[in-house]
Amino acid sequence: MKKYIVVIAGGGSTFTPGVVKALLSKKNEFKLDELRVFDIDGERQRKISVITKSVVDEMDPGLLFTEHTNPESAFQDADFIFAQIRTGKYAMRELDEKIPLSLGTIGQETCGPGGMAYALRAIKPMVELVDYMEKYSKKDCWMINYSNPASIVAEAMRRLRPNSKVLNICDMPVGMMQKMTDIFKCDYEEIEPEYFGLNHFGWFTSLKVNGVERIDEMKSFIKEHGLFPETNYDLQHKDASWQKTYKNMKYILNLFDDYVPNTYMQYYLLGDLVLNQLNKDYTRANEVMDGREATLFKAIDEYEKTGNYDREAFHVGAHGLFIVDVANSLVNDLNKKYLVIVENNGAIKNLPNDAMIEIPCLITKDGPVSTYKNLEIPTFNKGMIEQQLASEKCLVDAYMENSYDKALKALTLNKTVSSALKAKDILDSLIEANKDFWPELRK
């Protein structure tokens, strides 16, 4: 069996131990020769690697595990790059969320102005990662990108590195499907979805379980309970903000029950409600820093002192399982169907061909193959997608042209922003906060 060199770019992420555990759970199908972690923050990566190395030693003791801060040594002859970077870390995520909130607008990590701020920080380092891959890695190396905001990053990569082997993915639809298993009383692998949209902006149109359509059952449940009752939150999404998100699903379904929306649609369809629910002084970033981040670093400190740590300090969530499943289908040419982000190219006939859409694709050794051809979507969904797509395209224009005007238009087009005047106030505040990360935007 062939063995592979895998690089996790963003090795200092608290998700890394879970991704590695998921990866090694497939070691009989996807055998590694070496596992490398790469991060520009060597100290943070060193601490996370204390736990990551313990996972390797426990699950695959003979596997070579190495830590890198130098891109040449990290990417040399690699077969796969798993990218999960967060430029500016949680300090900047907190500002992404709190600056819009301070100006009476939704503050969220990947949606609205916060997501745009994150995107303008993420594009340059993502391009750098792709360039490292193409310079140092094997010619057939694939990058599976998990870095947010995935939709805007995918649009930027489409334009800036159009010939690169980058597959953009997101775990939110997968996470939703994992929760649906308790309602359907089935395993996750038994659910076959149909879905269309942009990343964090889409709808399930079908949910078959072992070939039987059951989406109406799911709609009825969500209309009454949301997704899901208080007793059924997993470790990854147990915080108060996620509980509100799942409950809000029922409001959307009771308004529009043709499809099951992605949870992130709350920011675009329930703006007033969500804004009132958000705490401008304590946002999701604070929850994560006080929760997952604090728990794992406490476990690391315990391990360095005693050699033991609480195994509940990290978990294998949808994040880790999905990226490994997609890589395994690429490696073994499994032709398995997953929801991934690809260029439209006629899959949805009434959207632009160059739109980066999230749809079901067969994952082959040569990459994703759309299962849709000339799909026609309804006017309502098409109109919402086109507005969001225009906002995202204007933002990438702003990055490429160093254009303040295009950035302002991007924010103005976004459905979370109430007016152009509000967009300008938010943009000016975000420029000041991101002066060490963003390209200069010239008027």
TrEMBL record:
Active site per the UniProt annotation: D171, Y264
Necessary cofactors: NAD(+)
Glycosyl hydrolase family 4 C-terminal domain: residues covered: 195-417
Cofactor notes: Binds 1 NAD(+) per subunit.
Keyword annotations from UniProtKB, A to Z: Cobalt, Glycosidase, Hydrolase, Iron, Manganese, Metal-binding, NAD, Nickel
Record-listed substrate binding positions: R93, N148, R284
GO molecular function: hydrolase activity, hydrolyzing O-glycosyl compounds; metal ion binding; oxidoreductase activity, acting on the CH-OH group of donors, NAD or NADP as acceptor
Alphabetized InterPro entries for the sequence: Glyco_hydro_4, Glyco_hydro_4_C, Lactate_DH/Glyco_Ohase_4_C, NAD(P)-bd_dom_sf
Positions bound to Mn(2+): C170, H200
GO-annotated biological processes: carbohydrate metabolic process
Record site feature (Increases basicity of active site Tyr), residues: E109
Entry's family note: Belongs to the glycosyl hydrolase 4 family.
Protein name: Glycosyl hydrolase family 4 C-terminal domain-containing protein
Originating organism: Cetobacterium somerae ATCC BAA-474
